[in-house]
Give the backbone structure.
Amino acid sequence: MKLIIAIIRSNKLDQVRESLVKKGIERITVSRVAGHGRHTKTELYRGKLVVPGLTPKMRIEIAVNDDFVESTVAAILESASGGGDGIIGDGKIFITPLDDCIRIRTGERGSDAI
């Protein structure tokens, strides 16, 4: 089992969700987040160099069985890119091991709970 976390542009959420549904991944968690990465540039404001504020993004979390990792990542990459080779600020995907998953309603554990 893996936990896939994707940080994407806010305007790409619907495209990513539709792409995931087409691949059979329907259970996702979405949160609004803010941050900055490489795309942060300093700007001159009233004679001082300042770093602009945080950029709003969307965080998608998806718990998947090992068989669905590559298709999930492919769906996100296809739909979240800014086009061509992509552009700075398109986002990131993190894949981490998931030790256990427990469905609260039934008490199921592991792959069955996902």
User: Anything to note?
Assistant: The mean pLDDT is 90.
